[in-house]
């Protein structure tokens, strides 16, 4: 017998480090791209290609304006300007000194001239004493006064001209300084410009899915692949390469085994930290609030986290009061970004208000929604706000669609929906013209839609692809098998115990055999092995419970929301009677609840269109020591106790049935005796 080995994993999945945890790595930070930087780049069509080996990069020189060179240039310009100012000041000082010297020289000359004239005049007066001489002296004095006045006027004009030149020089220096300051400010605020040549590059490779087979070999054809494998194994180069690489691989395996990768260091401090976390009080704080942007506030009927890191939250808005929708009510639902609570990132525009909405777990761009009029529609966020396709009204549900769930399929396009009209329909979004399959929730197994149970909640576990569960409006949980041969065989069994509509139904993510239901005034935990009663239940509350779900990271923690706006956190390992944490989120009723996959964040939707984002403390979203084992033991213990009670109830019913049958037999015998006595009397009378 020949063994044939087929590669089933992708090539890019080999060589990745192992996860030594039951949870994958989580996203620590998500830095969004800056859309404003697009204006600085030249747009080019992207070149999508997959590369097996590492990319090869080419280096090139870049000529750029250096900031140090810029500062040196500015310092040189400022120094030159200051030197020019100092030279101008020196010239002005020298001109002032020269003007003062000239004035002093002129004053001395005038004084000497006046002294000479006065001496001459006195001598002439004394010698001649004539009138003519006096007249001549007077004229000389007048001429001298005119000359002095003219000289003084010219001196003042020169001083004023010097002052004007000084003022103009100062104004010019001030303007030059202001211009230099503006140039410096512009050069420091402008981005650094780089002059490079545009280089276009492209990387190409092969995506190895089936071991990189040649083009003429079909990987799905076992005969061709086996023949080609034998041909390669006979090649001498292949054998030599295997021998050579085998020794290298053995060396690295031994080197890897020489180090104990499971050794734990600093365990003492870690134990203390674990004890502190265990003693930490459970709390939850409000991160942000997303409000319905419409004028008419609607109910947040469903919430769904984006599978791409949980950074987006889709919310469905509707009004569930029959024929009481306010006028001018918007039909839009929204996708919110957790970093921006002021306005939604995108609007979804259905033909009817959405009652339920779900992200595709394989593609974060695709959403599936169920409308109030019973139609199914799906969106691709890359194609806009309007639905890509909508199911026809004649083949859709007849009443509001309260739940849609994506199925685990290869294509990732299959889903099923449930409505209060009593139908469960299966869909393929590639063709929404008609459902691929239909199930009528008629317990008599006659397929009568008039006697069908209304569906309010659905549950599907990927590890059990053939099973699904339905929470009904009548308080029953219906377990179904999709792969049954006939529609009557698809309804397997029912679980009864609630007195009201089942608003929430979910399996435990760690133990799928056990599931949670929320209905009426209580939340209950069930086991598939016990059908007549639940194994655990909360106390009957004063107000209605409207939604609930399990924690995705702790098997013993679940959440419920109530009509008075309260969020309750339950940990049945800690306390089964009272919630571990009870938080008043808002004043109106909370209709929807959804926990992020990593368990750190929780979203609640209210009746007034408000979605509240809460952050849970680390104690409630961190797996505790031995929690799985303790939860499993408690589930098994409660299941055994419920089975014992179920057996006792069954025995009591059998005894009562046997007693009733015996009493009926005795009554029948007594009636026969009476009949015989009557017959004997009649014969005797005859």
TrEMBL record:
<keyword id="KW-0493">Microtubule</keyword>
<dbReference type="InterPro" id="IPR015943">
    <property type="entry name" value="WD40/YVTN_repeat-like_dom_sf"/>
</dbReference>
<dbReference type="InterPro" id="IPR036640">
    <property type="entry name" value="ABC1_TM_sf"/>
</dbReference>
<keyword id="KW-0206">Cytoskeleton</keyword>
<keyword id="KW-0677">Repeat</keyword>
<keyword id="KW-0969">Cilium</keyword>
<dbReference type="GO" id="GO:0045503">
    <property type="term" value="F:dynein light chain binding"/>
</dbReference>
<dbReference type="GO" id="GO:0036158">
    <property type="term" value="P:outer dynein arm assembly"/>
</dbReference>
<keyword id="KW-0505">Motor protein</keyword>
<dbReference type="GO" id="GO:0005524">
    <property type="term" value="F:ATP binding"/>
</dbReference>
<keyword id="KW-0472">Membrane</keyword>
<dbReference type="InterPro" id="IPR036322">
    <property type="entry name" value="WD40_repeat_dom_sf"/>
</dbReference>
<dbReference type="GO" id="GO:0005874">
    <property type="term" value="C:microtubule"/>
</dbReference>
<keyword id="KW-1133">Transmembrane helix</keyword>
<dbReference type="GO" id="GO:0045504">
    <property type="term" value="F:dynein heavy chain binding"/>
</dbReference>
<comment type="similarity">
    <text>Belongs to the dynein intermediate chain family.</text>
</comment>
<dbReference type="InterPro" id="IPR050687">
    <property type="entry name" value="Dynein_IC"/>
</dbReference>
<dbReference type="InterPro" id="IPR001680">
    <property type="entry name" value="WD40_rpt"/>
</dbReference>
<protein>
    <recommendedName>
        <fullName>Dynein intermediate chain 2, axonemal</fullName>
    </recommendedName>
</protein>
<dbReference type="GO" id="GO:0003341">
    <property type="term" value="P:cilium movement"/>
</dbReference>
<keyword id="KW-0963">Cytoplasm</keyword>
<dbReference type="GO" id="GO:0016020">
    <property type="term" value="C:membrane"/>
</dbReference>
<keyword id="KW-0966">Cell projection</keyword>
<feature type="region of interest" description="Disordered">
    <location>
        <begin position="654"/>
        <end position="686"/>
    </location>
</feature>
<keyword id="KW-0243">Dynein</keyword>
<keyword id="KW-0812">Transmembrane</keyword>
<keyword id="KW-0853">WD repeat</keyword>
<dbReference type="GO" id="GO:0036157">
    <property type="term" value="C:outer dynein arm"/>
</dbReference>
């Amino acid at each position: 017998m020949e063994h044939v080995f087929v590669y089933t994993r992708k090539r890019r999945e080999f060589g990745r480090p192992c996860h030594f945890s039951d949870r994958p790595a989580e996203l620590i930070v998500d830095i969004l791209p800056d859309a404003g930087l697009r204006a600085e780049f030249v747009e080019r069509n992207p070149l999508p290609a997959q590369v097996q080996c590492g990319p090869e990069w080419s280096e090139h020189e870049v000529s750029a304006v250096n900031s140090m060179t810029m500062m040196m240039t500015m310092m040189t310009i400022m120094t030159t300007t200051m030197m020019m100012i100092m030279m101008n000041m020196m010239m002005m000082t020298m001109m002032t000194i020269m003007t003062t010297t000239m004035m002093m020289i002129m004053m001395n000359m005038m004084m000497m001239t006046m002294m000479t004239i006065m001496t001459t005049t006195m001598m002439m007066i004394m010698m001649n004493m004539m009138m003519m001489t006096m007249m001549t002296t007077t004229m000389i004095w007048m001429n001298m006064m005119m000359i002095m006045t003219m000289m003084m006027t010219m001196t003042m004009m020169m001083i004023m001209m010097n002052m004007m030149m000084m003022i103009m020089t100062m104004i010019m220096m001030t303007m030059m300084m202001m211009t230099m300051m503006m140039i410096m400010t512009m050069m420091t605020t402008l981005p650094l410009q780089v002059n490079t040549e545009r280089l276009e590059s492209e990387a190409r490779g092969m995506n190895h899915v089936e071991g990189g087979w040649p083009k003429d070999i079909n990987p799905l054809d076992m005969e061709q692949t086996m023949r080609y494998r034998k041909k390669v194994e006979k090649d001498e180069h292949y054998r030599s390469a295997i021998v050579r690489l085998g020794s290298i691989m053995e060396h690295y395996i031994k080197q890897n085994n020489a180090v104990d990768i499971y050794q734990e260091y600093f365990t003492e401090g870690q134990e203390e930290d674990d004890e502190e976390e265990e003693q930490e009080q459970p709390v939850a704080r409000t991160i942000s609030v997303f409000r319905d942007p419409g004028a008419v506030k609607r109910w947040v009927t469903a919430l769904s986290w984006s599978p791409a890191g949980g950074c987006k939250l889709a919310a469905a808005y509707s009004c569930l009061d029959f024929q009481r929708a306010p006028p001018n009510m918007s039909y839009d639902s929204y996708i919110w970004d957790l970093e921006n609570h002021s306005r939604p990132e995108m609007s979804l525009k259905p033909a009817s208000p959405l009652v339920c909405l779900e992200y595709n777990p394989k593609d974060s761009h695709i959403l599936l929604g169920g409308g109030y009029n019973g139609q199914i529609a799906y969106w691709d966020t890359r194609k806009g706000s309007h639905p890509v396709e909508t199911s026809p009204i004649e083949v859709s549900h007849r009443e509001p669609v309260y739940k849609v769930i994506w199925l685990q399929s290869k294509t990732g396009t299959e889903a099923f929906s449930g409505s209060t009209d009593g139908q469960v329909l299966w869909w393929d979004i590639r063709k929404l013209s008609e459902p691929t399959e239909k199930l009528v929730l008629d317990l008599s197994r006659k397929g009568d839609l008039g006697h069908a149970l209304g569906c309010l909640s659905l549950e599907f576990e990927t590890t059990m692809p053939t099973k699904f569960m339905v929470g009904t409006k009548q308080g029953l949980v219906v377990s179904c098998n999709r792969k049954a041969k006939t529609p009557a065989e698809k309804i397997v069994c029912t679980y009864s115990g609630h007195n009201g509509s089942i608003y929430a139904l979910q399996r435990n993510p760690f133990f799928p055999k056990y599931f949670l239901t929320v209905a009426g005034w209580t939340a209950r935990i069930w086991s598939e092995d016990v059908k007549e009663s639940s194994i655990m239940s909360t106390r009957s509350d004063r107000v209605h419970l409207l939604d609930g779900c399990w924690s995705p990271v702790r098997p013993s923690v679940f959440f419920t929301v109530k009509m008075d706006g309260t969020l309750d956190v339950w940990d049945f390992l800690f306390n089964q009677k009272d919630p571990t944490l009870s938080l008043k989120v808002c004043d109106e009723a909370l209709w929807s609840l959804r926990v992020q996959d990593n368990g750190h964040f929780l979203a609640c939707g209210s009746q007034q269109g408000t979605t509240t984002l809460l952050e849970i403390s680390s104690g409630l979203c961190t797996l505790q020591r031995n929690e799985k084992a303790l939860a499993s033991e408690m589930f098994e213990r409660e299941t055994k106790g419920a089975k014992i009670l179920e057996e006792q109830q069954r025995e009591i019913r059998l005894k009562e049935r046997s007693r009733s049958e015996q009493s009926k037999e005795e009554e029948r015998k007594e009636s026969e005796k009476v009949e015989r006595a009557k017959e004997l009397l009649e014969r005797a009378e005859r």
